Amino acid sequence: MGRAPGRVNLIGEHTDYNAGLCLPLALSYATTVRATVRVDRAVSVRSAQVDEPWTGTLDDVGPGQVEGWASYAVGVLWALRESGWEVPGVDLEVDSTVPMGAGLSSSAALECAVAVAVADLLDHDLTPELRRTLVEACRRAESEVAGAPTGGLDQTVSLLASPGSALLIDFRDGSTRDVPLGWDDAGLRLLVVDTRVSHALVDGGYAARRADCEAATAALGLPSLREATLADLDRVEHPRERGRARHVVTENARVEEAVVAIGELDWTRLGTLMTASHVSLRDDFEVSCHELDLVVDTALQAGALGARMTGGGFGGSAIALVPAERADAVARAVDLAFVAAGLGAVHHLDAVPSGPAGIVA
Ligand code: ADP
Ligand code: MG
């Protein structure tokens, strides 16, 4: 059976499509896929989470051919065939503990679990090189078959993470590096709060942010915002585009600082950087929302060292770095704040830095 984790991004948001830096970690929540080989070219996929099985053949799994959730799963078969693999007809059975649509990347967990299950069927060893092939196939499945443009952050961490570490990803050259997280020994935990809201116009908002970043990059005459400095930004005339670029430039610097802080076990500094990331996403990038701000403000008041929205924004999840003995109090404070604000209940999850996709019994 293939198994692949969801992820949460510790810091480095909206930097992936700007050739920037991010620092996600794989979660203990994961998706499993049991793949059974067939003698014909038929494909079927069913999920314990969604009561809509899909059936077709290997000729029906490409771009424009599959609607709905199944596109994330069977799109991987198409992408692996595109990369030259002889993928047979298969029956796929999906199950998951990753909440869907919470910004914890249930989509990449599904793709990557299919990919490793198929790799196993074909007796491929999960070498580092093979994992990178799978990252690209899963990214293509999501972009080209499911139709959700993605830079590959989610697939990269799901397939390449190391237990106990975050993964520093540099989107300028695609390189990755493990960043061991020692906050356990300091008595800290990373809490995830799924706000269970997803505000309308998410896709439009995302596309508009990318367009603003491209406009700022063009105004500066640089290959990407990775090359920009704070001083450069005065040359971006449009105030909104300047704010977007300022977020990206300062966020890349915060990721670099966060890696240093983690190395020095300076958790106060890491917390401060997380909160600064949130403020930048809220004010300069304008992708936060009332619910995410409420989680962050409440967690900080209740004793978190730092807190921020995580993922694309407009809803989804926030994270908070908290002393273990304050974890319950922080969670309860968030619950009460949501009741007081007349909002629906949140979901609390724990972010335990976990290992990558693999084969399980
Ligand atoms: P996220 O990746 O943050 O959870 P997305 O919108 O990118 O949010 O992906 C969520 C979608 O992925 C779901 O709406 C569904 O189509 C698909 N999906 C993920 N996990 C499963 C699953 N276990 N069963 C069926 N579909 C799933
Ligand atoms: Mg996703």
Task: Characterize the structure shown.
The chain is of the alpha+beta class and 361 residues long. It folds into 2 domains: 2-179, 2-Layer Sandwich (Ribosomal Protein S5, domain 2); 188-350, 2-Layer Sandwich (Alpha-Beta Plaits), CATH 3.30.70. 39% of the residues lie in helices and 23% in strands. The chain is built from 9 helices and 13 strands. A 6-stranded mixed beta sheet has the order 5-4-6-3-1-13. The protein has a 4-stranded antiparallel beta sheet with strand order 10-11-9-12. A 3-stranded antiparallel beta sheet has the order 2-7-8, with helices on both faces. Helix 1 packs across helix 3, helix 3 (128-145) runs antiparallel to helix 4 (153-160) and helix 8 crosses helix 9 (327-340). The termini are close together. 50% of the residues are buried. The chain binds adenosine-5'-diphosphate and magnesium ion.
Offer a quick outline of the entry.
Its EC number is 2.7.1.6. It is an enzyme of class 2 (transferase). The protein is α+β, with helices and mostly antiparallel strands and 361 residues long.
Mean pLDDT: 96
Which distinct ligands sit in these coordinates? adenosine-5'-diphosphate, magnesium ion
E-strand count? 13
Query: How many DSSP H or I helices?
Result: 9
Briefly note the structural class of the backbone: alpha+beta
Distance between the termini: 6 Å
Radius of gyration: 20 Å
